[in-house]
Design a protein that fits this description.
The chain has 667 residues and is an alpha/beta fold. It has 18 helices and 28 strands.
Length: 667
Amino acid sequence: MDVAVVFTPGGQLNYNIWSVVRELLNGEDSRVGAAAGVEDLKKVEGAGAVVIGGGPYSVYRRSINPISEGFLEKVLEQGESGKPLLGICLGHQLIAKHFGGRVRKGAVGEYSYTSVELDTESTLFQGLPRRIMAWSSHKDEVGRVPTGFRATAFSRVCRVEAMEHKSKPIYSVQFHPEVYETERGSSIIMNFLEAAGIKGVHDYADKYSAVYGAISKQPGGEPVLNARPHPVSYRRVKRVPRRVGSRVVDKRLLFPVSPVLKPDEFIRRALSFVRNTVGDGRVLLAASGGVDSMIVAELLHRALGNRVWFIHMDTGFMRSRESERVSSFIEEKYGNLVYVDASREFVGSMRGLENAEEKRRMFSRTYFRILEDFASQIEAEYVSQGTIWPDIVESVKVFGRSVIKSQHNVSPPPGFRKMSSLKGVLEPLAGIFKHEERVVAWRLGLPPSIVFRMPFPGPGLSVRNVGVITEDSLLLTEKVNSTVEECVKQWMLDTYGVPIVIEPPGLHRPWQALGFICRKGVVECKYEEEIRRIAEGNGVKARSVFLLQSRMTGVKGDSRTYERPLVIETSEGLLTYEAYERVFLGVTSIPRFRVSRVLFTVSSLRDSGKYVAGFRIVESMHAMTARNMRIPGTLIQEISERLQSLPEVGFVVYDVSNKPSATIEPE
């Protein structure tokens, strides 16, 4: 093994680091390993180079689990003996502390983009421009470099954005080179690998361009669907008998060969994984109709034939006629379909719930109960899902730290894991990202409507209906969301000829175009005058500044936030893209403001209408990070006017937030 990537507890982007290193090593999974604890120390000792990732912990107080802290100390000791080390974010701070530097809480935080000045004489930054835009998510910073080190990059906010040892191959950066949003980020990691003496390191940009160029030229033919399956109403069956001393376990294909550079090899291994896991058993696949579950449907069908059953649930939170289209496709292509109308069960379970996490957990509980019922009826030994890595990492609770948000397919209730008939949950895509699975879908020959399908959350419109869900609010959410999707899709077709553009190295424009609603209640912002000054300092005159009463989910420094979004009403109508972004960055960087999401009004504020309608259009590569997408003012105006025409809407807001510090979905 050439490189070991150290997964620090709770780090949201550690798997991204592993994936980038794998791609730089020609997509070969055998050359890069993951190390997370003392049991993996031999991997670290045997590797030619080590990368230490980020995480939500502070190194200047004991906040890391003692076992993990001891392991990390042993990793850092490898650097003392000459092992090449690269620290990223928390890894940067761990290196500083271990070698005698000082880490402190910064006066302001850096979330999403920041301009970084580089010392291009540094090993890491050779061949790069002197200034890059980098992606950050941190509040702590290195206040003093250790003896024997020198600072090699800085920004307006952080004086030590990078450092290196003067005589040993030890390097570190505060920002995140492993994400697409950091300019030349993969080049920084490649420079480290080459300096460490790793052989066969290659830039993969040209290969990615060839793959995504081929996908974009895919013939546009869609299947003609004649099947018209009718849903069965869900009725809860008698309680499934439990057994003591056994658990349903997750069967996940993690750390695979590159699905982009070696898609046929990935498919071959995935089919082998399915056959070896299931044997002669039966599988029930939860098929939502998204690209995730449809890839798994094709893999299972090829591997197991008619021993696969497909269940599609109409949750009541789907888009208009979506369940009809999905069930028709599955019935036509595969058969063995269980099409369930469970809308009363799902919507009823949400009644009265306001907190976003409580809503997500209740959705998950209902989802797994229905899976449990039908799996027991067909005597399935496995249930399968289209779970991908971002679903897992945002849902995992590490050493008491809160999850970012509970994904419905990753958080089953305890009883589900004690089913008498089940052996496991089968997830052959658990180790890949969305931009990678598009390539797999293409190689499997799935139709363009699936290959290019815009992501839609498992809980559907329930996470776009912020706060308590009622019959009226859910109906309005569907109208608002469909309006936004229609407007953006038509603009994309008129401008680019396709509904989604996927550019190398897998950037989706748009990743999602969504509409949401919340109650119109507002709360006074006690930092109104300071925020006005920040806006004016960026050329924006704020007429009013306030908070919405409803709370929305965010992520800062790999930790969850759940705060009221900030609303800014301006005096000059629509702003430039750059002005929106500057104000967002300025406001969210001040910790005491406790703001993760910034909304701008794009309509008049009227007394009638009891809801706020909002829209959000982002671009992303893998949903771990996302950026507000640049769109023309004419499109913003069109969406605003159509939403303002709905009588239930009091005013319309445009969500200009990046991730971090706001999650893509409002809840």
